[in-house]
């Protein structure tokens, strides 16, 4: 499960590219708004607040897309997906006749 083919220029896989693309789309949608809102205090203030608001998205993309859990030999996004699915698989068990 942990080995993936680095297909895009030999650097990133399709899964990692999807994380990068979604992250860039999210950043493009809200960072200009944050910059415009705080740029009335100066362009430097707007740029600082834009970078600070972008940091959580960048950290989440790097954390989920590019790190692995070595103990289970799987990527973090797949590990969290399995952890979330496990909660829904409890059955209602009953005794026999």
What is the distance, rounded to the nearest whole angstrom, between the alpha carbons of the first and last residues? 42 Å
- Structural class, by secondary structure, is mainly alpha
**What is the succession of H and E elements?**
HHEEH
Oligomer designation: single chain
Strand content is under 5%
Q: Report the helical percentage.
A: 55-70%
User: How are strands sequenced across the largest beta sheet?
Assistant: 1-2
Low-pLDDT stretches: none
Number of domains: 1
Shape assignment: elongated
Please summarize the sheet with the most strands.
2 strands, antiparallel
In total, the number of strands is 2
Using only C-alpha atoms, the radius of gyration works out to 20 Å
Roughly what is the average pLDDT, rounded to an integer? Answer: 86
The helix tally amounts to 3
Comma- or semicolon-separated keywords:
mainly alpha, about 100 residues, two-stranded antiparallel ribbon, 2 strands, single chain
